[in-house]
Amino acid sequence: QVQLEESGGGLVQAGDSLRLSCVASGPTSSSYTMGWFRQAPGKDREFVAAINRNIGRIDYADSVKGRFTISRDNAKNTVSLQMNSLKPEDTAVYYCAVDRDITIIAGRWVVEFDYWGQGTQVTVSS
After folding, report:
1. What percent of the chain has pLDDT over 70?
2. Are 81 and 19 in contact (CB under 8 A)?
3. Burial class (CB in 10 A: 0-12, 13-18, 19+), 36
4. Which of 12, 20, 99, 115 could form an S-S bond across to 33 if both were Cys, CB 3.0 to 4.6 Å?
C-alpha cells in the first residue's frame, strides 16, 4: 500500500508563501499521478493540483492557478506544492495524494486520488 507523508504546513499572513512537501513510500511508480487536494472545515474536498510527468500533464484548480506550482521528483518519490500569494480562503487541511490510474475521457484528464496522507494544516490570516 502506498504511504504518503506531508510536511510544511503552518500559519501565515495573507500574501505570504508556503511550500508543502510530500514523500511517498511503498509500491510507488513514476507512472502514478501525484497531487494535492484540500478540505476546509464544513466544506467539500477540493482538488488543488496534480502532476504526471509520464504523460506530460499538470493540472490546477482555477482557484490556485497562477499562485500555486506543483513539482515532482520521481527519483525521490516526492511531490511539492509551492504556494504564493496566499489568501484566507486557502485555509484548509492539505492532503498529498496518489492516483494509480491514468484516466483520459474525451481528451480531458480525470484525476481520482485513491491514496492520501494524514494531511497538513495551512492557515492564512487576513
Report:
1. 100
2. yes
3. buried
4. 99
What does the CA dihedral 57, 49, 12, 118 come to, rounded to 10 degrees?
-120
Q: Which of 87, 110, 126, 124 is nearest to 10 (CA)?
A: 124
3-state secondary structure 90-104: HCEEEEEEEECCCEE
Tell me the DSSP string of 4-21. Answer: EEEE--EEEETT--EEEE
Residue 19: all three cell numbers together: 511550500
* Angstrom distance (rounded) from CA 116 to CA 62: 22
C-alpha 6/C-alpha 23 separation (Å) is 7
